[in-house]
Amino acid sequence: MKDYITPIKIQLDEAMHIHCSLFCTIGSAGETPRFYNFQDYDFKSEILTIGSTQTRRLFFQIDCKGLNFGYLESSDFWQQFKEYRTNFLKQNYSTISLI
Question: Looking at the 3D structure of the chain, how many domains does it have?
C-alpha cells in the first residue's frame, strides 16, 4: 500500500492545528475535525482536499505537486488518514471527542 500521509504530514499538521484551534474556540458539534475525511483529489493541479463529512464549507487543501501520487486510491488514503487524524487528535486535542 502506498504511503500517502508521510509526504504530506507537515501540511496536514499545520492545517489540522488551524482547524482544531478554530473548532475549540468557536466551533459547534457538527464542525468537529473528527469528521474530516478525503473529499477530492484534482489530478491536474495535484491538490488534495480534506474536509468535513458534516458540512462542505469546512475543508483545507494540501499541495501534492511533485509527490507522484498518480491515481490516489481513496479507500487506502481514507484508512491512513483516519489513523493519522485519530492519533493527531489524541496527541494534540484530547478534548475533541473521538467517539
Answer: 1
Report which DSSP code applies to 63.
E
Please give the grid coordinates belonging to residue 69: 501520487
Residue 62 lies in a domain: yes
pTM listed for this prediction: 0.90
Q: Tell me if 72 sits within 8 A of 4, measured CB to CB.
A: yes
Name the 3-class secondary structure at 99: coil
Residue 99's pLDDT band, with cuts at 50, 70 and 90, is low
Q: Which CA distances in Å does 50 have to 53, 89?
A: 9, 15
Query: What are the tens digits of pLDDT across the range 8-23?
Result: 999 999 999 999 999 9
Q: In this predicted structure, what is the pLDDT of residue 1?
A: 85
C-alpha cell at 78: 481514507
What's the domain range around 16? 6-91
70 vs 86: CA distance, rounded Å: 26
pLDDT above 90: residue 55? no
